[in-house]
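#struct-queue
[09:14] JT: dropping the first one here, sequence first, then the structure tokens:
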Amino acid sequence: MKRIVTSVLALVLMAGAANAERYVMVTHTQGTDPFWPVVEKGAKDAAAALGVELEYNFAPSGDMADMAKLIEAATATNPDGLIVSLPDAAALGNAIRAAADAGIPLITINSGLESSAEVGALMHVGQPESLAGLKAGERAKAEGATNPVCLNQEAFNTALVDRCNGYFNGMGVSDGNMLDVSNDVAQIKTRTAAALQADATIDAVLAVGPHVCEAAADAVDEVGADVHLSCFDLTPGVINLIKEGKVQYSIDQQQRLQGYMPVVVLHLYNSNAGMLPGANIPSGPGFVDAGNAAAVAEQAGVNR
């Protein structure tokens, strides 16, 4: 009898596993940015809490055509939901729209807020990037900065362009210098140092990624420049730079939410006849500075 009960229980568990919801997440990381493992962790934490399956994919090349192919491949497996970042709507829009047209519910995250609805997404989870840049610029101006440069590691990424332009607008600068520094840490440091040496009047630098921030701080030290350095996102290294007074603040977009919330929303949508929040979910922006860095230090690079 015990053997029969055990066999029935095993069959029930197998049936449950076979019927589990399955979601696929595709993001534009190349695997070098410390921001994205936190997003992935958030998504997998949500999947584990809800008992659903999650597959996380990215194109190490960083090429948008390769990312589009990953989205197309995910669509072909007919998942219960698709979660995608949208850094380049022109390059990714057709692949995402095809998934929506195939009846796959999808949510965009992180970048592409303005294009989310037009590519067929149910909603977007992420911070308004222009607003985040604007707030960073307004604060830099209030703290005495006047002549900025913005370091962009992904020139194709509209979200990062929005951050830079928002920063310039917040500082009241109409012709700000947005510098393409690439995603290579050595290149980031070299190109930042070169820009500071070429123009001694630069007194403000915004790094729109955490690894960019750390490399920029090294460049500032190497050149001996006196600049107002601010950043986006958190790592233990960025927290230490804030504590040391080398970085004035970093914009926190709470990337764990960008991974966690789409899984929850898709689960509710699939389980409750299309239940959906009435608006996009903004995950930021917020400031981390000397006043609160210690409080979030243990979360940096883990959940924030």
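[09:21] JT: and here's the second one, same format:
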Amino acid sequence: MDTFIDKLAQKRNAQEMIRANTAAEAVKMEQMKKQLEAYDELLQEIRRVNLKTAENVVQAQEVLKECMDRLEALQTAGTEATGGGQALEEIQKLLQEQFQQSNDFLHRENVKVYRNVQAAMTEALNKQTEELKDSQAQNRVSRALLPISILILVGVAANLIISLLPAITALF
């Protein structure tokens, strides 16, 4: 009878381990979902900031272009006071340099944002891959215990039948 109780206890322990592993996996999956949602929110925020930066650069470029157009209009209108044409040319060069610097700045910022997003996504993907591998390894252990639990259950049932057989045959 003691072996029956021991085997029954082992069966319950195996089932409890399977349930605990399943519950732990569910908790991990929920954590990964929340983490993925947080990454998505951060990604959206990065995109919004990038779009806002691009809009600001476009506006600055428009203002610079308008200034250059006005300078060219002034220059063609014949406003050539003493040294005035030369001053206009210097201002025009300065505006062209500013225009080029704004283009360079926009490019650098876009590259930074791209690399940051890429790094964040790579890191998140690596973490999730490792967590999934760990989860699969735990599932393999749980699945390996299932046939053992079934064999134990069959053994317990066989022992129970064998131990009850003399009592049953005595009744008939």
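[09:30] RK: nice, looked through the second one.
[09:31] RK: The chain has two helices and no strands.
[09:31] JT: good to know. The helical segments are 2-76, 84-171.
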